Amino acid sequence: MKPELHIEPEVVYRKRKGHAHAHHGGAWKIAYADFVTAMMAFFMLLWILGATNEDQRKGIADYFAPTIIQMQNSGGSNGIMGGRALQTQDGNAPAAIPNGARPVATPGGGGGPMTAEVTSPDKAANPGRRRTADETRFRMVQRIIDARLAGDPTLKGLRGQVRLVRVHDGLRIDIIERADFSMFGSGTAAFTPQALALIRQIAAAVAETPNRLTVRGHTDSVPYAAGPANNWTLSTIRADTTRRILTASGIDEARFRRIEGVADTDPYNPKDRRDPRNRRISITLLNQ
């Protein structure tokens, strides 16, 4: 009898082929980073708009404003100015005009030559840029004056007596008297202690600017005491006293362009020429 053969069944294992996911790359990361950056910039913009006032926003806009320089070539010259002069308003004069002092013959032929003043290139070039620089300085001066007066307990009550007005010539700073505040002793050019401290604070605000200055004295229409002096003399002396205090407070004397007294001819309150507010000192920070 033959033994039985035990045959193991054949088992075949088949691996199921899986479908691998396609590789997407990192492009989505760049897009997401751009989105996050844009959102951050947007929220920063919202924060700046909420945390600044109109003057500060104007200063920021001026800082980022592009400066456009138009250059044209003129026949016979390929230089930077294209053979054109700086003296004309549009910078397109047909020929260059020499700058600086030029000798001029003295009438009669006697003596040496005298010089005629001609506008320098620095004063004539880039009027738009200089105008923007002036506006920035004027806003800075106003902020400094406001901060100094607000931070001084003895002068905080006089903030209303300092009036800053943008005029054609520049920035005018008016220091105005009132019924209970006098800058000078009656009929004199001697500053009161409060007015002296006020002038020094204003001097500190304008000392760092390069702009030239004018000082004008004003009086009311109350007749001056008997004597050779009058309101014209008094207003002029007070303007010059202000100049001397400004100079002693750090302002270069060469920056003063004009010192004048106008008596009561330019009243603050034309309806009442005896109004104490007509007595004032005007310091104008001139355009460059």
TrEMBL record:
CDD domains: OmpA_C-like (cd07185). This is Chemotaxis protein MotB. Residues 104-132 are annotated as: Disordered. The chain crosses the membrane at residues 30-49. Residues 171-288 form the OmpA-like domain. It is a single-pass membrane protein. Belongs to the MotB family. One of its GO terms (cellular component) is plasma membrane. Keywords: Cell membrane, Membrane, Transmembrane, Transmembrane helix. It is found in: Cell membrane. It holds the Pfam family MotB_plug. InterPro entries: Bact_OuterMem_StrucFunc, MotB-like_N_dom, OmpA-like, OmpA-like_sf. It comes from Polymorphobacter multimanifer. Its main location: membrane. PANTHER family: LIPOPROTEIN YIAD-RELATED, STATOR ELEMENT OF FLAGELLAR MOTOR COMPLEX.
